[in-house]
């Protein structure tokens, strides 16, 4: 517990049940862009920001993972309890807690409020989701509630622009008064859960009697969505539409970017004197970064669907549907959302596994998360599909969309298989039933979707501008030195370069799985960021942005120089490997052990090699 410097104001912490709107409120108060989505367990870390009060004073605000009680059962709840009790090293105890309560679910919310009060935390209650409560005809006597609780209660609507105005005013008032001294240790007398519940009932009977009779579960749409047969059919259809759209909608924006990259390369080539600098810019930077950039539309389309699904409230329902299936292979139904987040990137997926209380379940989820197809793999898939899968319709379906769906499915199925093996190895038994609250369906807000897409675009562009840029420059250097002799062809020049020699040295290793030396080179930078495999192929095939955008040229070049068997083997390789380094770092942090990092690395490489080998041999045998 760190004492505060004189004059400094202790931070305000937002505490409440999962999915009650803490992060939405936090974003309003601080102008941040924390992730808001319609399911429990979105926030798994402590986040901080600054709010400016009406009098100009700045106070620190903390957004915390949701929790139902102050007895933590999961790693994310643990974070919340540690922060509010000031048990994190180097952090002050929050001076004031804003207890966020979902007005449509007072029962669970008030229970937590009473628990906080018992422990002597100074409180302001934010009664959030008042718009939904009103729409459902729920009347809550706010004044009476404040009187019963003995603290301020402020209605808020965290999805409206000024939905936090009253709360801000109230915070200003509250912070102007001296804060009460925290209760001395030992002075806390905790009531039993049943006593707490009785208190909540008695408060509800007085301030909102209608809630006592309110049912949380609304049939209707859910009769179809949660149906054991229809529900699965709907889920399959939803996923299928997503993959079709990734190809069908991306054509023209892709051409637009290709055109721009091509024009930039040609412009540079025309205005610069021949020499290493021109080659670096045109063949290295523009060709390399451009080759990755063209996949932006496809990534955004994928994210558009993920964001809509997250906001609608569909995800926890899908988790329930699949709970049985996942339980059979040894994953908890709770693993569904972390695994789905891994479609974006394994890192948030692995962190979201904090919401799983059982350590073995959590570890199994972490271990298989990298098998879910992260968005960095999309460019590699899209490139190879574009080069090797003909544009053909099978009924209403495109063959390319179908292939992409198949690759994603291969990732999911192998994750299930690995989880099943882990279950055997660990002799795991004891199925734990899934307890998850179903949020109401919500219309996704266009504003939130746009913000989410912008965020994604920025992350992707930042990757292109930093790691992909750097690797491209390094690779350009390695493939241009030593300077080839006069009259050498482009292919000879690369073969003689450092990169070429490295590729040849590695080739015996990858020859059994059908890879040539060019592929061997591209796999190395692909380990730091998978997308770079695409630009690296551009570099080793000596494509220059001086003629046309490199991505455009790459597909025909690959189609010509590789056998289909090689291409399929490379696709199979990328379903499993290589692990990107930042994922491994997060695995180390979340499991606190190097052991799991090495196990993960080894099993993924082994699977990748085996899968590529089998694919290559089978494709050759079939005459690929
Ligand atoms: N209608 C309405 N929706 C809201 C309100 N506040 C939040 N939401 C929605 O409720 C959902 C959950 O909001 P979040 O801010 O992510 O909730 P959270 O409490 O941070 O959730 P966790 O991080 O999972 O604990 C999102 O879909 C929000 O758009 C509100 O006042 N009214
Ligand atoms: Mg949150």
From TrEMBL:
Q: Which CDD domains match?
A: FeoB
Which PANTHER family does its entry note? Answer: FE(2+) TRANSPORTER FEOB, FERROUS IRON TRANSPORT PROTEIN B
Query: Which species does the entry assign this protein to?
Result: Roseateles rivi
**Residue stretches making up the FeoB-type G domain:** 9-177
Please give the start and end residues of each transmembrane region. Answer: 229-249, 280-309, 329-351, 363-389, 401-422, 460-478, 565-587, 594-616
Query: Which keywords does this Swiss-Prot/TrEMBL entry list?
Result: Membrane, Transmembrane, Transmembrane helix
Q: What is this protein called?
A: Ferrous iron transport protein B
């Amino acid at each position: 517990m760190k004492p505060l410097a004189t004059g400094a104001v202790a931070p305000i912490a937002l505490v409440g049940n999962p999915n009650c709107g803490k992060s939405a409120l936090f974003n309003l108060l601080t102008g941040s862009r924390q992730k808001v989505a319609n399911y429990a367990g979105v926030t798994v870390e402590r986040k901080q920001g600054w709010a400016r009060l009406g009098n100009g004073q700045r106070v620190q605000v903390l957004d915390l993972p949701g929790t139902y009680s102050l007895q933590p059962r999961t790693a994310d709840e643990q974070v919340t309890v540690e922060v509010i009790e000031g048990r994190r090293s180097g952090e002050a105890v929050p001076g004031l807690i804003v207890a966020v309560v979902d007005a449509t679910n007072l029962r669970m919310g008030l229970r937590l409020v009473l628990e906080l009060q018992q422990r002597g935390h100074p409180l302001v209650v934010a009664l959030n989701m008042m718009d939904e409560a009103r729409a459902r005809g729920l009347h809550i006597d706010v004044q009476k509630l404040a009187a019963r609780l003995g603290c301020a209660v402020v209605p808020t609507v965290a999805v409206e622009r000024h939905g936090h105005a009253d709360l801000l005013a109230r915070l200003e008032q509250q912070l102007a008064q001296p804060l009460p001294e925290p209760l001395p240790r030992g002075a806390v007398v905790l009531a039993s859960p049943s006593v707490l519940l009785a208190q909540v009932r008695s408060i509800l009977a007085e301030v909102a009697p209608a809630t006592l009779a309110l049912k949380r579960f609304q049939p209707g749409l859910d009769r179809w969505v949660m149906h054991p047969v229809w529900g699965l059919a709907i889920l399959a259809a939803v996923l299928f539409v997503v993959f079709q759209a990734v190809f069908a909608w991306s054509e023209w924006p892709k051409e637009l970017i290709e055109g721009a990259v091509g024009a930039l390369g040609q412009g540079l080539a025309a205005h610069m004197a021949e020499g290493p600098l021109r080659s670096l810019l045109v063949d290295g930077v523009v060709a390399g970064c451009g080759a990755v950039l063209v996949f932006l539309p496809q990534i955004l389309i994928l994210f558009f669907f993920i964001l809509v699904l997250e906001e609608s409230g569909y995800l926890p329902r899908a988790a329930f549907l699949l709970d049985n299936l996942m339980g059979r292979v040894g994953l908890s139904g709770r693993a569904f959302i972390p695994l789905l987040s891994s479609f974006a990137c394994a890192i948030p997926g692995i962190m979201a596994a904090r919401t799983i209380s059982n350590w073995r379940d959590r570890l199994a989820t972490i271990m298989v998360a990298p098998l879910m197809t992260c968005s960095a793999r999309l460019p590699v898939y899209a490139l190879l599909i574009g080069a090797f899968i003909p544009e053909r319709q099978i009924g209403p379906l495109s063959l390319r969309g179908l292939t992409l769906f198949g690759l994603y499915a291969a990732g999911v199925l192998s994750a299930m298989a690995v989880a099943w093996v882990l279950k055997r190895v660990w002799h795991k038994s004891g199925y734990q039933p899934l307890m998850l609250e179903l949020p109401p369906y919500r219309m996704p807000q266009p504003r939130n979707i746009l913000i989410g897409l912008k965020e994604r675009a920025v992350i992707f562009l930042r990757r292109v501008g930093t790691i992909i840029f750097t690797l491209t420059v390094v690779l350009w250097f390695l493939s241009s030195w030593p300077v080839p002799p006069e009259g050498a062809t482009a292919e000879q020049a690369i073969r003689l370069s450092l990169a070429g020699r490295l590729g040849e040295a590695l080739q015996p290793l990858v020859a059994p799985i059908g890879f040539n030396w060019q592929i061997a080179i591209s796999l190395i930078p692909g380990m730091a960021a998978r997308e770079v495999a695409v630009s690296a192929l551009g570099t080793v095939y000596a494509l220059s942005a001086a003629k046309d955008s490199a991505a455009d040229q790459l597909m025909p070049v690959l189609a010509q120089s590789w056998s289909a068997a090689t291409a399929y083997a490379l696709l199979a390789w990328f379903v499993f490997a290589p692990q990107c380094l930042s994922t491994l770092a997060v695995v180390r942090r979340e499991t606190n052990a190097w052991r799991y990092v090495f196990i993960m690395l080894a099993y993924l490489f082994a699977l990748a090699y085996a899968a590529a080998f089998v694919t290559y041999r089978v494709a050759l045998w079939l005459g690929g």
